[in-house]
Amino acid sequence: MDLSTKFTEIYQKQALNAFFAPGRINLIGEHIDYNGGLVLPCAIEFGTTLYTAPNNDNVIRLKSLNFDEVIEIPLQNGYTKQGDTWYNFPLGVADYFIKNGHTLQGLDMLYYGNIPIASGLSSSASIEVVTAYAFNELFNAGYSKLDLVKFSKSVENNFIGVNSGIMDQFAVTFGEKDKAMAISCDTLDYNLVSAQLGDYVLAVVNTNKPRKLVESKYNERVEECAAALKAFRQRFDIEDLCDIDAATFAENGHLIADETVYKRAQHVILENERVKQSIQALSQNKLAEFGQLMYASHQSLRDLYEVSGIELDAVVDYSKTNPDVAGARMTGAGFGGCAIALVKKAGFDNFSKEITAYYTQKIGYAPTVYQQNIGNGVGSIQLLSVPKQNTDSL
């Protein structure tokens, strides 16, 4: 898709700047980010591309090629959420900049995303971060990348209304090619972990069941974890649920009286241990061991955290029957969206064909299967003097 030509068709001018932010997958460590533990995400090649040019009309114009409308918003002293539309994400970023003392100028903006919408691959964080990065560059706001991560999370929590952690924005911003990111969500310290997959590739299987976080039980899970933390604080001086290790949980789990809250805590604490084991396995190129940890993670998310479903389970169930698959699990918050599988390159086409047939027979409609590589985080795109930028490979 030639976004430069599209930009000119829509706005009758050439784009002067362009930016890209990826989506992300979480290799392992689900529902850990708001519990102060370790997560292991990576950026992917899917993402959001943004082309811009200034205008003299004191408005921000927002257009996405993924949706129909063009939105024209006058520059003012702040904004509020407008229903459930996609442009709340850039609107929230604009609101943050303005309320923190930055002067915005008129801007025409064209977005294009190839992240499957509502799939759990962080399309929202991708839009937030690419917008924040663009504003930071265009208006000389002086924010660091870590600042962009923090306030993009604030937009998600306070403007959009989803009580998510910081993992998505962090991975979208700081990702590096062929490397996973071991992020400590309590301190935001992170280490890059070699993720050389060798004879394997990542298969992303979109269940095509949309995942709508605000409408899901995501916030309920956050509250249940807060209840578990409160129970442990009867005996332990801790900041986060992941400050409790597996051995301590085994000895003190009785502090949690509610059975459901107990199961949620059990998942979180054992999942945090699996992340530590996965970091070691990946860094030592023990892909079979990592694959088994993926399967264990999915089982825990299904049985203890209860955020899977028949669609995601079908992907993992089939994967266990295919000898070319080292491991599989749901990725993202769950309630629909995507699963990932570690599949031998030579067997990927067969995997794609067979899982499509299995899933369609079981669920009643087909999934969409993608092969993805681990990519880089947010950045600028160099435009030619006469723009003609093909973004299909982005």
UniProtKB/TrEMBL annotation:
Its EC number is 2.7.1.6. Keywords: ATP-binding, Carbohydrate metabolism, Cytoplasm, Galactose metabolism, Kinase, Magnesium, Metal-binding, Nucleotide-binding, Transferase. ATP binds at S64, A118, S119, G120, L121, S122, S123, S124. Residues 279-357 form the GHMP kinase C-terminal domain. Mg(2+) binds at S124, E156. Pfam families: GalKase_gal_bdg, GHMP_kinases_C, GHMP_kinases_N. The keyword Methyltransferase does not apply. It is found in: Cytoplasm. It is an enzyme of class 2 (transferase). GO terms for molecular function: ATP binding; galactokinase activity; magnesium ion binding. PROSITE patterns: GALACTOKINASE, GHMP_KINASES_ATP. The record marks R24 as: Transition state stabilizer. Substrate binds at E30, H31, I32, D33, Y218. InterPro entries: Galactokinase, Galactokinase_bac, Galactokinase_CS, GalKase_N, GHMP_kinase_C_dom, GHMP_kinase_C_sf, GHMP_kinase_N_dom, GHMP_knse_ATP-bd_CS. It catalyses: alpha-D-galactose + ATP = alpha-D-galactose 1-phosphate + ADP + H(+). Residues 6-51 form the Galactokinase N-terminal domain. The active site is at D168 (proton acceptor). This is Galactokinase. It comes from Mucilaginibacter auburnensis. The lineage of its organism: Bacteria, Pseudomonadati, Bacteroidota, Sphingobacteriia, Sphingobacteriales. The gene is galK.
